Amino acid sequence: EDQVTQSPEALRLQEGESSSLNCSYTVSGLRGLFWYRQDPGKGPEFLFTLYSAGEEKEKERLKATLTKKESFLHITAPKPEDSATYLCAVRAHSGYSTLTFGKGTMLLVSP
Amino acid sequence: DAGITQSPRHKVTETGTPVTLRCHQTENHRYMYWYRQDPGHGLRLIHYSYGVKDTDKGEVSDGYSVSRSKTEDFLLTLESATSSQTSVYFCAISLWGQSSSYEQYFGPGTRLTVT
Description:
The complex is a heterodimer of chains A (111) and B (115). Chain A is mostly beta strands and 111 residues long. Chain A contains no helices and eleven strands. In chain A, strands 2, 4, 5, 9, 10 and 11 form a six-stranded mixed beta sheet that branches. Chain B has 115 residues and is an all-beta fold. Chain B has strands at residues 4-7, 10-13, 19-25, 31-38, 42-51, 54-57, 64-70, 73-78, 87-94, 104-106, 110-114. The N and C termini of chain B lie far apart (34 Å).
């Protein structure tokens, strides 16, 4: 059974204080790892797809990296507008087009 | 913007009544999905569709049925709503089949309360 575990469950940062969110996964054969951002009361918004170990993707203050067992979402010098819940999901070799999601990390950035 | 709308956006219903949620997309994507999101559980797949009249079950399909008679519409039905089905429901589409991308794009959600 595919499993995705995100940590920490919640993270509070001061503006400018860099940190990382973790997504560890157990799948039969990874066919893609996805990061999403979700604001309260809204649907998840797609951020990145990573396909192979060593791959990195960047968008503004966010950088996602991938190893064979986990992915990190690095947030550099965060701003209050980066406050959101960040979701990680995987697509497995045995799956069809479906994704398995983690429970998310709630990030709060204080001014 | 993936052109996904959901209706209704909010609904309160009583236990035992049937409820149908609608997902509409404007760009003829083949793959569509229904999820529910609950505190402590994250997003869980209910049913998905890979074409007109082609559907399959997800992780939490008990108590739900779906139908897709047109490419643009994917309906989720709760035949007899229960309080445990109080949740936020999200529809999503995937570009898979039209590109090499597998990411999914989500609608705005429907908040359903069963009293």
